[in-house]
Amino acid sequence: MELSFVEILKVIIIGIVEGLTEWLPVSSTGHMILVDEFVKLNVSKTFMDMFLVVIQLGAILAVVVLNFEKLNPVSSMKSKEEKKLTIELWKKVIIACVPAAVIGLIFNDYMEEHFMTAKVVAFTLILYGILFIWVENYNKNRSPKVNNIDFLDYKTAFIIGLFQVLSLVPGTSRSGATILGGILFGASRLVAAEFTFFLAIPVMFGASALKMVKFGFNYTGAEMVILIIGMVTAFIVSILSIKFLLRYIKNNDFKAFGWYRIALGIIVILYLIFVGDPV
Per the CB 3.0–4.6 Å rule, which of 33, 61, 82, 261 could disulfide with 78? Predict the structure, then answer.
């Protein structure tokens, strides 16, 4: 396979979509399924399935780079108490990862075979769009109990992890599900978003490693270039996306994302009606 300029451009477009949608509560997987209908790479289906997961490593590295000091439990710049709080944070992250890791390992193949469709994406986009608007209205007169991630307790962390299980269905949005769970159970928007970012690190590293092992490590030169360009693009765009979201939620709620999801879901349904199911 020769990598033409058009193919490289397609990879960059996919990386941009991944970087934008991975951290915003709009479903990166759902957008990837939809983008794949219009931006088709000249690669095997097996490689493409792996690529759409492994490209997330670029997005994850953005979280690590932006929060390296905060996530580093052995930093020489931290006091003994700060190091202890960092270790506690990692314990909460690991505990929150357990539900999705267990359910994901059991049902991953089934989900990919039966739920990776535009119909499912359209339904979940609209459903969780409505839920975002409802949760924001429900929380209008409630004050968050947790305004600092260091004070997030283990029980709430585990509950947020349970919400992450919902994201196994494409179109749900991993960040959307966990942010909803965090807000419903007393976390501020900022704390819910921050914990969502950190929760993604082991989950997405694990998912990417699993995909790479299943695919094997016999990449062609062109496939390696595709992976690298996709991850680098996703990394750069994720940096911007994360910074935007953190600024946005300081003065705004998530209703705009809810309306966006509903509008996109309706567009997908109209596409299915007038053009046909792409899957």
Answer: 82
